[in-house]
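Q&A log
Question type: sequence-to-structure
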Amino acid sequence: MNKRIALGESLGLSEEQLAQVAEKVADYLAQHEDPRNAEENLLQELWKVGDQDERHKLAHMLVKLAQQS
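Response status: OK
Response body:
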């Protein structure tokens, strides 16, 4: 994921734009993919129970986490 974040940043995407993309990806994954491990399961469950604002904040946190990796 870090490579994708770096690519987005090199294209001039802001953190907000990266978080919006992360939200779309997370929505898709939560609806169409089964978690492969406990960490993915936790993220999916958090995504499902969160409201729109909470999901947006989680997407920002995931972008920040990927930037640090």
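Response note: Residues 2-68 form a domain with the Cytochrome Bc1 Complex; Chain D, domain 2 fold (CATH 1.10.760.20).
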